[in-house]
Amino acid sequence: MSNFIPKNVRSIKKNLSVPELIEIAIKNGEGVLTSKGSLCVRTGKFTGRSPNDRFIVYDDISKDTVDWGKINLPLPEENYKIIKSKALAYMQNKDILEFSGCVGSDPDYQFNVRVFCEYAFSALFSKFLFINSENKITKNSFTMFVLPGFSVDPETDKTNSDAAIILNLKEKTIIISGSMYCGEIKKAIFTCMNYFLPEKEVLPMHCSANIGKNNDVALFFGLSGTGKTTLSNDPERRLIGDDEHGWSENGIFNFEGGCYAKCINLSRENEPIIYNSIKFGSLLENVILTKDRTPDYTDSSITENTRAAYPMKAVSIAHDKLYGPHPKCIVFLTADAFGVMPPVAKLSPQDARDYFLCGYTSKLAGTERGIIEPQATFSYCFGAPFMPRKPIEYASLLERKIKEQNVRIYLLNTGWIGGSFGIGKRIDIKTTRRIVKHIIEGTIENSKFIKDKYFGLTIPEYLEGIPAEILNPINSWENKDEYAKKALELAKKIESQIKKHKE
Questions:
Q1: Which residues are catalytic?
Q2: 273/233 Cα distance (integer angstroms)
Q3: Are strands 203-211 and 217-221 parallel, antiparallel or unpaired?
Q4: What is the pLDDT of residue 218?
């Protein structure tokens, strides 16, 4: 049980209100208020997660259950003990802010969480992203220390830099040092949930979820840039959550109490629900402000990964509960920049397991240095950096739940058609939304389906309101031989990824 409480600190202020935390942050120079009333902060050299600095303590609990490798890096238990003692010593004579709440909206699978923060904006973020509910400390309690000013010593502490995010699964303790980026707080807890919940036959999922008037739940899985947040924020439905959920015998439940949205190029016209959620009581990270402190969401001079955090109650379409029944349909999203994947395909439970294991999308030319043409990228379970167990454990659990609940599942391409990036064009968002509507309402099942010869996918021949020539993507290419070449190349890469993670 995690029971480490910092001692000899100057003060611990617990569960302060949003105005109190914002007031402290401004007084201490952590950030400024924007013209919209949100608190805007800069996170220094870390403007995103630092995967090479994330460690799991290697001990008698984790040694045979964690999938060790490039993602899950081991830290010797003796080094963790030294770092922990130094972290607690660092907190002496400091004013510490504590958030106490929980993770998981289903009481049967809920974990309590205490977050001890050096900075007020970290406590504010915790208040937004976790569920506000004071509970007693139990064996299902996580304790987190968020100490951006505390540095580890890579030489003596066996870390890769002076920053470290350390998860101790036996103690249920997390130490975040050297990084002010709030995403580390959120994803550290998510990783812990991904470790513990499968033991209870609960599938943890990196996905968004919404619910319709008929109590029909839809799940959206997808990597960055595929449209997961945009498509789940549907004004005709209610949002259960935008990023992290569990699937138990009771149904779907949100882990979180808030949202953490990317806001680069955010506009009221394109994403009004997210745009209007950013107001007083929200937090902006690394967003450039104009002279009158108006957020300029088009400015990426600090980072492309600008972020906004806000509570679910700020979302106009938020469901009045953070949970729902078993899903009726699941959508796997990919943004295929090669232009060879069909806009939509129906998946069997076995297909779903396999595509879950590969988690395919593509990076575009120009998004990272050195990328001059589209590149295939894979992240198993659509969240590999946060999955401490073997991929097949999650994929097999997904397959079983799909079969038990008779869930319809589809692969949806929000990428290019008629050619690769630079030649073809991206599938229009209105077209994608129409396809999603067909999926959710079940009208796609009235279609006649054919087998794609390159990926073995089951694709519809006709969907009302969707151009017939794009449903089978080879029909939209002028050069059919070039299509066949690129499709076969991608199919081999996908097959290789699936094979790698099936064991």
A1: 49, 187, 206, 224, 228-229, 243, 307
A2: 7
A3: antiparallel
A4: 98
Indicate the average pLDDT of the chain.
94
2 pLDDT more than 80 = no
The span from the CA of 88 to the CA of 460, in Å, is 59
Question: Which is more confidently placed, 140 or 189?
Answer: 189
Read off the pLDDT of residues 312-330 as tens digits, 9 standing for 90 and up: 999 999 999 999 999 999 9
Calculate the dihedral angle through the C-alpha atoms of 265, 266, 267, 268, rounding to the nearest 10 degrees.
Answer: 180
Whether residue 122 is predicted with pLDDT greater than 60 in this model: the reply is yes
Residue 214 · residue 75 · CB < 8 Å: no
Task: Quote the CA–CA distance of 199 and 404 in Å, as a whole number.
Answer: 18
Q: What is the mean pLDDT of residues 364-377?
A: 59
- On whether the CB atoms of residues 315 and 239 are closer than 8 A, the answer is yes
pTM for this model (two decimals): 0.94
Q: Report the Cα–Cα distance between both ends of the chain, in Å, rounded.
A: 32
Query: In angstroms, rounded to a whole number, what is the distance separating the alpha carbons of residues 383 and 193?
Result: 13
The CA distance from 174 to 55, in Å, is 10
The enclosing H or E element of 100 equals strand 95-103
**What's the average model confidence in pLDDT over 129-158?**
87
8-state DSSP, 455: T
CA distance 180 to 228: 26
Confirm if 220 and 274 have CB atoms less than 8 A apart: no
3-class SS at 155?
helix
Q: What is the dihedral of CA 184, 186, 188, 192, to 10 degrees?
A: -170
Q: Which helix (H) or strand (E) holds 398?
A: helix 391-405
Contacts 24+ apart (CB under 8 A), 56-64: 56/166, 56/167, 56/168, 56/169, 56/388, 57/166, 57/167, 57/168, 57/169, 57/170, 57/171, 59/168, 59/169, 59/170, 60/170, 61/169, 61/170, 62/169, 62/170
For the cut 60, the answer to whether the pLDDT of residue 369 exceeds it is no
Residues paired with 460 in a beta bridge = 449
Q: Which segment, 6-20, 124-138, 201-215, 222-236, is predicted with the most confidence on average?
A: 201-215
- Residue listed under structure tokens 């806001």: 263
- What value, to the nearest 5°, has the Cα angle with vertex 234 and ends 232 and 236? 140
Residue 462 tokens read as 């006709």
CB atoms within 10 A of CB 72: 22
